[in-house]
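SAMPLE LOG
Freezer: B-3
Tube label: C17
Construct: single chain, 252 aa
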Amino acid sequence: MKHKIALVTGATSGIGRACALTLAKMGYDLIATGRRGERLEELGKELPEGIRFLPLVFDVRDRDQVLALLGNLPSDWAAVDVLINNAGNAHGLGPIQTGQVEDWDAMLDINVKGLLYISKAIIPGMTERNSGHIINIGSIAGKEVYPNGNVYCASKHAVDALTNGMRIDLNPFGIKVMGIHPGLVETEFSLVRFKGDEKRAETIYQGYAPLLAQDIADIVEFALTRPPHVVLADVVVLPTAQASATVIKKNL
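STRUCTURE (predicted):
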């Protein structure tokens, strides 16, 4: 029996990696993308027996590479049933007046344009087949704006808007479109935001129980196992200690 195919971007760590492993355990053949080839190799070794695996090493910001690789998938990989647009990053945390343009470019290029490039390569096949499920991993930052979050929040608001727009435009084709917007999840996110400052990154997750990457993967599994007439369109998920982007109960 032929397995369905899932494509997960940013599968080398955190939420993307957890989603990739969960999808493979569900029986999906897996296309996993990321910038770190060795991480993808490690992921491949953890997949259940019988699951096909296609690792693709590229940066979602590179439009030509995205379209070249995903636009020319082998015929037995071309019919992607599930797309998890997970790749995304935060770069820096500071007020707009002192923000670095390089950080702004990185966030907009990865979080917004990268999502668009991936989607552009995959959606035509879904519309041709009149089926598919797209899950965009957003953030609570796409629902609220918080101090010093300016451009990152803007990029995640764009993800939310694109998700809603996709759902409208793809409605005639029977394609499900979902947005998942997590609050604080303990991943490499803060390490990237604080540019390798491990001590500062660790403080973000102290004094309470943050979400884990697997918590998001569990939501993905639940969404994908709903009957055909049901779509979880928009899910905001927070750790119990978090009430909003800025209200967190810490026991320090």
